[in-house]
Fold:
Amino acid sequence: SQKIEQNSEALNIQEGKTATLTCNYTNYSPAYLQWYRQDPGRGPVFLLLIRENEKEKRKERLKVTFDTTLKQSLFHITASQPADSATYLCALEGNGQNFVFGPGTRLSVLP
Amino acid sequence: GAGVSQSPRYKVAKRGQDVALRCDPISGHVSLFWYQQALGQGPEFLTYFQNEAQLDKSGLPSDRFFAERPEGSVSTLKIQRTQQEDSAVYLCASSLGGAYEKLFFGSGTQLSVL
Structure:
C-alpha cells in the first residue's frame, strides 16, 4: 500500500544545532516533493520544492535532498532558532493531481 | 485579499446537522483543493477542482460530503448529517494550476460536532 512516513512525531534540538527531518515514501513515484511548515492554528506554508532530477536544493538556512532510489527526502535547518519551532510536513504528488501529505514532525528548538 | 480565505473560522454543529464551509481562493488560481486534518495528523486529501470541474473526489469519506465550485472561484464544502467523526480542521488550498505548483493554504475551519 502507499505510505508516507516522517521520522519522528516530535524532535527536540538545541538552538544553533542542525535539525534533520526525514520523509520516506512507499509505492509512490513522485516527480517532485515539497516541504511545508505549519504553525498551530494555521494552514501549512510552502517552504521548498525539489524535483526528481535534483539531488539537493537550498534556501537560506534550509536544505532539502531527494533520493529517488532510497525513496527518501531529508530536510535540514542549520543554525536553528526557537522561531523555527513548528510542525514540518512533506508532500508529494499522489495519484492524479492531488498532493499527499506525511503526518508531520513537530520540531522544538530549545534556547 | 491576498491570501486564501476560509469561513467560518470555527463551527460547532450538533450531530445530524448540515454544515457548509466556504473557501475564497487567491484570485486567478485555477486549482483548488480541500483537505481534512485531524489533531496531530497531516492533511488528508478530500477533493480537487480545476476551475469549476471537480477532477478528483476520491478522498471524500462518504456521500455525506459534497463540494462545489460553480464559477471556478469560490468553493463550498458541504457535510450533511454531521457525525462526531467529522470533527476536524478543514483546510482549503489553491494554486496557479501548472505542474510543480506550490499550494497556498487558508487557516482552515475547525469543525466540532457534538
